[in-house]
Amino acid sequence: MSVVEQYARVHIVTGSQEGENAVPVVLRYDPEADPRVVRIGLPGPHEWKFSRDLLERGLRAPVRSGDVEIWPCGRVQAIMEFHSPKGTAVVQFDAKTLIRFLRRTYMAAPVTPVAH
Q1: Exposure of 75 by Cβ count < 10 A (0-12 exposed, 13-18 middle, 19+ buried)?
Q2: Is it true that domain 4-108 has CATH number 2.30.31.20?
Q3: Alpha-carbon gap, residue 38 to 24, rounded angstroms
């Protein structure tokens, strides 16, 4: 299994870089470290990790887990909201970027059924 890394540009809706046209982020998935977790590195030393399932569900309907909230915004965009003691950052992604990233993660490590 190999690491999946994808670079993207997002629009900052709130936070320290609000108003900038687009800022770089990195989407990362390392199935050997934890096949259930994806990471998003925002500008500066800010990396958020959350479940791959949360990202997938957030492209269809609003979801929240811990400090991360994701929801679709129209048909072509998705919003992610990250909460920390220092404040809240809201970023806007092209949904197709996240869909492409998810597809690559499933090629690297397909979902395994949970045993009951």
Answers
A1: exposed
A2: yes
A3: 17
